[in-house]
From TrEMBL:
One of its GO terms (molecular function) is hydrolase activity. It holds the Pfam family Abhydrolase_2. Keywords: Membrane, Transmembrane, Transmembrane helix. The chain crosses the membrane at residues 41-59. Residues 3-85 form the Phospholipase/carboxylesterase/thioesterase domain. This is Acyl-protein thioesterase-like protein. It comes from Arabidopsis thaliana (Mouse-ear cress). The keyword Transmembrane applies.
Length: 88
């Protein structure tokens, strides 16, 4: 069945390839939003499904922009019904 997704899904298996370009693009968007928070704010990220995968990806890999590094260090990460992208 053809459906919409936030990123390209080539296959559903343990050996599937992650769409790293889309993950990085989404991570950069999230990091840009969170970088505007005051320094005294405790940052937490989370989501369901792809949101969980994105939260885990951002928390484990950090986020890099070509012009500057946006370092987001969440104190809390919550994921429901997701997966750890690029786990290899």
């Amino acid at each position: 069945m053809e459906t919409n997704a936030w990123f390209d899904i080539a296959e559903l298996s343990e050996n599937m390839q992650d769409d790293v370009a889309s993950l990085n693009h989404a991570a950069l968007s999230i990091a840009n939003l969170l970088s505007e928070e005051p320094t005294n704010v405790m940052i937490g990220i989370g989501g369901i499904g792809f949101g969980a995968a994105q939260a885990l990806y951002l928390a484990s890999k950090g986020c890099y922009d070509t012009n500057q590094r946006l370092q987001i260090k969440p104190r809390v990460v919550i994921g429901l019904n997701g997966w750890l992208p690029v786990w290899r």
